[in-house]
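User: Could you check the structure of this?
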Amino acid sequence: MADPISIAGIILAIPPVAQLLLNYYTDAKKGKADIKRYIGELMSLKGSLDYIESIYFGEKVTWGNKKKDIKSHSDKLERVKSGVLMVVMGDSLLREEVRNDQKLRESQALNNTSKGSGGMPA
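Assistant: Sure, the predicted structure tokens are below.
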């Protein structure tokens, strides 16, 4: 027959574990939208790069006539590059925060489980 304290510890561990699973499911579900958004941004960047390529390689470039255009496109490309870097950095920070949060929740769940069983593992 199982020890009542162990059973109580297991029962107390169920809600935190269920919450971890729910959080994981919610994050994974949101991940699809994030991936679609990143793909859209990358496609936009590709379109900009294709446009720049068609301007500079699709016709003869004369420096005198194209100097302003090159500066304008260079500025736009720099803004796009900065935007992509910010998205990548933000994504990296968010992923790190999610990992840290998951580790904290797992640690708390383990602590709650061990407290519920009198400090002894079940």
